[in-house]
Write a structure and sequence with these properties.
Oligomer: single chain
Largest sheet: 9 strands, mixed
CATH topology: Rossmann fold
CATH architecture: 3-Layer(aba) Sandwich
Strand content: 15-25%
Order of helices and strands: EEHEHEEEHEHEHEEHEHH
Protein name: Iron-sulfur cluster carrier protein
Bound molecules: adenosine-5'-diphosphate
Number of helices: 8
Number of domains: 1
Family: Belongs to the Mrp/NBP35 ATP-binding proteins family.
Distance between the termini: 10 Å
Organism: Sphingomonas endophytica
Helix content: 25-40%
Function: Binds and transfers iron-sulfur (Fe-S) clusters to target apoproteins. Can hydrolyze ATP.
Subunit structure: Homodimer.
Structural class: alpha/beta
């Protein structure tokens, strides 16, 4: 961590020192939720006791991605109990706090309160929390950096310029708050042919990596645009839970090394 920046290590009744990894993007639809789910699973596979917090108030998609859609967390002593998923990663989602299908129209203090409930839950032995933030730079992000002091942030971007400009704004928010940027992940980078597996680059190659270098932050890797990733995600079977560790394990290894 940088000088002057204090990482808040959450110590619960179980006395577990817990580190938070915030996953952010400048805009929606770039694959932030997909990356968060797969990163959490890959970290768990690498031996970290990892939990997942879905703080995306605009489109909480983790219950579907993690195959626990429709579940409701129970509470003990008014503190939430994370829901077990088939992938060894317990989950709490904003989507579990509202009626299914209802839009969340909360004001700042309510979102801050809800985020607090998800993070300060009965996480037990969990030592790493991956937090899927909403896109952009709103109330949830501010509460996240000011109150919950993540150990670092992972920024997700697509190769297109606009997403990169938006990503710069997200990077700015963390840097201004003194939260270290662990690095940038380029998603939908190149197109993986469903027939032969060859990856081609309809949007050009290397833009995100160059932008990361320019911004002085680490480049954690590329995730190809792959129909198999979308279909697996829709089916509640994140690819990182499978046997192919080529894409997500190296990203998780860099994040784990940071923690
Ligand atoms: P965000 O959280 O940034 O809004 P999502 O993770 O929900 O984005 O992804 C948006 C859509 O794109 C989803 O349907 C998801 O399955 C799909 N998607 C994300 N990453 C990839 C990828 N690398 N290849 C194919 N589809 C992807």
């Amino acid at each position: 961590a940088r000088p002057g920046y204090e990482v808040r290590t959450v110590v619960t009744a179980e006395r577990v020192a817990r580190r938070i990894v915030a996953v952010a993007s400048g805009k929606g639809g770039v694959g932030k939720s997909t990356l968060s789910a797969n990163l959490a699973i890959a970290l768990a596979k690498a031996g970290r006791r990892t939990g997942l917090v879905d703080a995306d108030i605009y489109g909480p998609s983790q219950p579907r991605l993690m195959a626990v859609e429709g579940t409701r967390p129970e509470a003990r002593d008014k503190v939430l109990l994370p829901v077990a998923t088939p992938y060894g990663v317990p989950l709490l989602s904003m989507g579990q706090l509202v009626e299914p299908g209802r839009a969340i129209a909360w004001r700042g203090p309510m979102t801050a309160g809800a985020l607090g409930q998800l993070i300060d839950a009965h996480w037990g032995a969990t030592d790493t929390l991956v937090v899927d933030l909403p896109p952009g730079t709103g109330d949830v992000q501010l509460t996240m950096v000011q109150k919950h002091r993540p150990a670092g942030a992972v920024i997700v971007s697509t190769p297109q310029d606009l997403a990169l400009i938006d990503a710069r704004r997200a990077i700015d928010l963390f840097e201004k708050a003194g939260v270290p940027i662990i690095g940038l992940v380029e998603n939908m980078a190149g197109y993986a042919c469903p027939h032969c597996g060859e990856v081609s680059d309809p949007f050009g190659h290397g833009g995100a990596e160059a932008a990361a270098r320019e911004a002085g932050i680490a480049f954690l890797g590329r995730v190809p645009l792959d129909i198999a990733i979308r279909t697996a995600s829709d089916a509640g079977q994140p690819p990182a839970a499978g046997t192919d560790d080529r894409v997500f394990a190296p990203i998780a290894a860099q994040v784990a090394a940071w923690l």
